[in-house]
Each structure stands twice: as C-alpha cells, then as structure tokens.
Write a structure and sequence with these properties.
The protein has 142 residues and is of the alpha/beta class. The chain contains two helices and six strands; from the N terminus they run αβββββαβ. It has a domain of 92 residues: Barwin-like endoglucanases (Beta Barrel). Helices cover 21% and strands 27% of the residues. Strand 3 and strand 4 form a beta hairpin. The termini are far apart.
Length: 142
C-alpha cells in the first residue's frame, strides 16, 4: 500500500497504538466468571444430577429401546433424557444409601420432574420397587 507523506503517516502509528491498547485491555474489561458459572466435573462427592428416579418393567419388557436394543427388565439398564447410550452411571438412593451401576440404553423418563427411569432389576437393588419413586444422585461410574 502506498502512502503519501503528510497527515496520514502521523495517523497510522496512532491507530496502531489504539488497536494494541484495545487488545491489551480486552481481557481486563471482559466479564469475570465466578466460581458458580464455571462447570465443574462430577466427582464422588459431586453428582451429575440429583432428583427423583422411577422404574419401568413388565409393560415394556422385550420392546425396542431408543438405542435399538430390546428392553430387558432384568438387566441393569436405565433411561435418561440426555446422557449418551452406553454411559455407565452409578445411581445412589439418597433415602437408604443403596447404590447400583446401570447402563443408559433408552430415553426418558416421560414424566416431568424425574431424572432417570430404572429397569426393574436396578429398582429392586435400590429398594424403590414398592414405593415406585426415590430421591437419587447420579454419578459417572468408572
């Protein structure tokens, strides 16, 4: 680019200085993220989710799940709205302390306010078959 001598040559260093100043000040002027806005990974002390679990069994036994496999009410599986199929999740019953590891193979629950639908076998191990519902915490299983 050709420049004429004169006033434009004086403005160029000033413009470069303004661009550099803006670049240096941008991080300082950016909104700060507090500890609550930064997502933290789940740990044994920090669950993925807490909420209400329910279970499903005989009525759906043998039907296709959202992952394409047949639902087995005697297997340790579960339905979750967003976790990838095949994810192993430890479900802890907050009311009695029991825990079970299940594999996500379906989508659900279809009832608002619930975070996971467990197979009959998983619900039996957690002690929630009779009640039908229980408060639980979900953790990524290793």
């Amino acid at each position: 680019m050709l420049r004429r001598a004169g006033r434009s040559s004086v403005l160029l260093p000033r413009a470069v200085g303004l661009v550099l100043a803006a670049a240096l000040l941008a991080p300082a002027c950016a909104p700060r993220r507090g500890p609550s806005s930064v997502p933290r990974p789940p740990t044994p002390e920090r669950p993925l989710e807490r909420g209400v679990a329910s279970w499903y069994g005989q009525r759906f036994h043998g039907q296709r799940t959202a992952s394409g496999e047949r639902f087995d009410m005697h297997g340790l599986t579960a339905a979750h709205p967003t976790l990838p199929f095949g994810t192993l999740v430890e479900v802890r019953n907050l009311e009695n302390g029991r825990a079970v590891v299940v594999r996500i193979n379906d989508r659900g629950p279809s009832v608002a306010g619930r975070i996971i639908d467990l197979s009959y076998a998983a619900a039996l191990r957690l002690g929630l078959v009779d009640a039908g519902l229980a408060r639980v915490a979900l953790y990524l299983a290793e």
